[in-house]
Amino acid sequence: MWPRQPPRTDTIGQMVPTSTLRARFAASLSAMYGREVPAYTTLVEVTEEVNRDVMHRDGADAERLGTLARVSAERHGAIRVGTPNEMRSVATIFAAFGMYPVGFYDLRDAATPIPVVSTAFRPVDPDELSRNPFRVFTSLLVTDDRRFFGPELQERLETFLDERTLFSPELLELAEQGDLDDSDADRFVELATAAFEIGSEPVDREWYDTLEAVSSVAADIGGVTTTHINHLTPRVLDIDELYTRMQDRGIEMIDRIQGPPRTDGPAVLLRQTSFRALAEPRTFRSSDASVYTDSLRVRFGEVEARGIALTEKGRTIYDADGDYPDTEPELAAQDIGYFTYSMNPDRPQDDRPADLATAIRGGWLIPNPIVYEDFLPASAAGIFRSNLTGDGAKDDAKQGSPWSVDRMSEVIGRTVADPHDLYRAQSTASLQAMLRDDTLGSHS
């Protein structure tokens, strides 16, 4: 079943629009995360400095892939859960914010294996994205994958996970209710934010270490009784400059920027980097039941720069490390990038060729880039890997459990959308609207 459409706001006087809820939620999480991870505040400050400087340097070109207001407000978060029931609850909560599952990512075969499969919850309507594009990359622990978990450990892990409650009944009731007025909306955002705060209950050290021997991510998911925001990511217009400025401030960054290399041509897809996970004080319980304070490194500060969404053809070229055109018109003409289109007012349209590529190359049509709103498996795994405390263990002689986008859809009870379908529909709708306007104009 396709996600239900958000209720109409023009007929419900007191209802808070989902885009407003999303903006409140993103701001609330950002404030909370800044309190818990002070270096994140530094990251946001440097991001804002770089964005202002890029605007001053590049003018209108800086907003080619989104207005400064959108980019400044933009965030994506990352969380991790342990069971299908927890994943379904997450889907229910995010749907109330107008965020639906898009894309399927399997990180179990990364260079450093991570026993999770993931999707991203985000708005799917272009207008909703422009109002507030908050996304949450959400990973589910694959407890039945024998390459990571033997039968005994799987049973212990699933028992532990089944005994915890991540989300309060009140939070889920408000999420299912929808149509929230200001009072309920405030309470909903408050509860949703609290659900992703770092936990205060003592961590069972022996159990945590058992899981960490398999994977640091497994321990972060299944070794504690709560979940939390793992990172919260602002968007920057020049990630190379940000990387340098963060180092100049004494912040230890991971060793490189993940994603496509910088080129002189249009930015494509997604580039990401982060400061390294910080040692944060946590309370532990030892095997003799004594409680003490130590530290864990599980949360870090990621930042991203977004480019043009690539078509399936474009992704094939990118994944093969191939060369692609260095101009937006050629990306569009060769069907390598996704674009919306407008007619060039300076070029007479009565002799416009029917072939799209010819019309683009001849200047009759102006391609406008569609921003890549999703994630790259290799980059996500690279960010995770750069912030792990160990390589973990994986037995490749064992059989892994099968996962697919269809299984993820079944688990969470909602259709996981294909990003390409969304980009293609946006591009096609633009062409159809332009042709309608053209036809009307020719008879006026």
TrEMBL record:
It is an enzyme of class 1 (oxidoreductase). Transmembrane segments: none annotated. One of its GO terms (molecular function) is dioxygenase activity. Its EC number is 1.13.11.93. Keywords: Dioxygenase, Iron, Oxidoreductase. InterPro entries: HGLS (IPR009770), YdcJ_bac-like (IPR047869). Its cofactor is Fe(2+). Belongs to the 2-oxoadipate dioxygenase/decarboxylase family. This is 2-oxoadipate dioxygenase/decarboxylase. The lineage of its organism: Bacteria, Bacillati, Actinomycetota, Actinomycetes, Mycobacteriales.
